[in-house]
């Protein structure tokens, strides 16, 4: 496939540079924009309208789920490939629910990433093999994730709460009122049956919402 414009969203400049070099080895592939957080990703998408967005989930402030949801609200045809360290089936399913077209983990081989980019660019779904196996195993075992009943925005707020962000900062980052964030917080606790914030943190870690290098 030739003549493909791509936007990279990752908060590590060195990582973005590595993926830019990998992608631009393919004839016709061009990285036309880069962003390091959800707000910049939304602005850059509106300015450049890339064919494919490659989106990390672990971003400072609002994460990739929020960025996916926001971009897809503005452009229902946006083709977004999540590329992340998160290997939990629940997180992958929520990314698809938010509007992602593909999900590849960073432990995947470069060829797997390139194949997923091409599939997403063609309007198809794509998953790395490890995520496909995780989802299949969860479905076959009939063990529902405790996060299954949460909407993508609730997942994002849970991640932000579990990472230690104060409610005021969450409200500012998501352009919500403090009261709305507090209502979300209460609803998330009720849905998960959590009595305390410490229990919420435990559930977020168990579900793979926080990486080992993130606070919690």
What's the SSE blueprint?
Elements: E1 4-9, H1 13-23, E2 29-35, H2 38-48, E3 52-55, H3 64-74, E4 80-84, H4 89-98, E5 102-105, H5 110-121, E6 126-127, H6 129-141, H7 152-162, H8 167-174, H9 178-192, H10 197-206
Parallel strand pairs: 1-2, 1-3, 3-4, 4-5, 5-6
Helix pairs in contact: 2-3, 4-6, 7-9, 7-10, 8-9
Written description of the protein model:
This protein has helices spanning 13-23, 38-48, 64-74, 89-98, 110-121, 129-141, 152-162, 167-174, 178-192, 197-206; strands spanning 4-9, 29-35, 52-55, 80-84, 102-105, 126-127. It is of the alpha/beta class. The protein has two domains: 4-141, Rossmann fold (3-Layer(aba) Sandwich); 152-206, Arc Repressor Mutant, subunit A, CATH 1.10.10.10. A six-stranded parallel sheet has the order 2-1-3-4-5-6, with helices on both faces. The termini are far apart. GO terms for molecular function: DNA binding. The modification 4-aspartylphosphate is found at residue 56.
Give me some keywords for this one:
216 residues, alpha/beta, Rossmann fold, Arc Repressor Mutant, subunit A, 6-stranded parallel sheet, 6 strands, phosphoprotein
> With helices defined by DSSP (H or I, 4 residues minimum), what is the helix count?
10
Helix content: 40-55%
**Topology-level CATH name of the largest domain:** Rossmann fold
- Return residue spans where pLDDT drops below 50 for at least 5 consecutive residues: 212-216
| Overall CATH class of the largest domain | Alpha Beta
Short description:
The chain is built from 10 helices and 6 strands. It is α/β, with parallel strands linked by helices and 216 residues long. The chain folds into 2 domains: 4-141, Response regulator (Rossmann fold), CATH 3.40.50.2300; 152-206, Arc Repressor Mutant, subunit A (Orthogonal Bundle).
